[in-house]
Specification:
With about 190 residues, the chain is α/β, with parallel strands linked by helices. The chain is built from 7 helices and 12 strands. A 6-stranded parallel beta sheet has the order 4-3-1-7-8-9, with helices on both faces. Strands 2-10 form a two-stranded antiparallel sheet. β5 and β6 form a beta hairpin. The termini are far apart.
């Protein structure tokens, strides 16, 4: 699967990986994830893609984004777009597929192996193009969730499919429980 001397790059579709890990009942420890792939080859770059709500005072993903940025990940973000659907529900849209695809195509001549953390079938043409350029592509997602989090056509196109659940012991940690609230006269979050 992996060769020690091959140049690796990780492309992490943040929302997709989060959803897959959540469906399997664990959280990703990104420090361990990076270490695992540094062990598997010469890790040149680890990209993490996510959309951020810019108008909110506090975004729950902001601490993760900051931590990743300071710990060796190349962060690719853009403002999420908020809209109201036909039933009046507030929705957030923040697709990062184009950014991920452009970065992968730009880096392809400099790497031997790309690891894509996503199950999105829209990436099948990207994987096919990378393969035509001589780059091996591994896809990390899960078929063990209900429904499976990876599109069948993406899994079939990849040189290698890595079941996320099989990485649980290497890169996972138990999901964090919501922080309990203390009762004084006001609710205070315990740190």
């Amino acid at each position: 699967m992996f060769y020690k001397d091959e140049r690796l790059a990780l492309f992490i579709d943040g929302s997709n990986l989060y959803a897959a890990a959540k469906a399997l009942g664990f959280d990703i420890d990104y420090k361990l994830l990076r270490q695992e792939f540094m062990r598997r080859g010469k890790l040149l770059r680890a990209f993490y893609y996510t959309a951020l709500l810019e108008n909110d005072d506090y975004s729950p993903i902001r601490p993760l984004v900051d931590w990743l940025h300071y710990n060796g990940f190349t962060m690719v973000t853009k403002p999420a777009k908020e809209y109201t659907d036909s039933q009046g529900r507030r929705k957030v849209k923040g697709n990062m597929d184009i950014e991920l695809t452009v970065n992968a195509m730009e880096l392809a001549p400099r790497v031997d192996h790309i690891v894509l953390f996503s199950g999105d079938g829209d990436f099948r043409p990207l994987v096919e193009s990378l393969q035509r350029q001589g780059v091996r592509v591994s896809v990390v997602s899960t078929i063990r969730s209900q429904p499976p989090m990876i599109a069948d056509e993406l899994r079939r196109q990849a040189d290698n499919f890595i079941e996320l659940d099989e990485l649980r012991d290497v890169i996972g940690r138990p999901p964090r429980e919501p922080r309990p609230m203390e009762r004084d006269d006001t609710a205070v979050e315990v740190k």
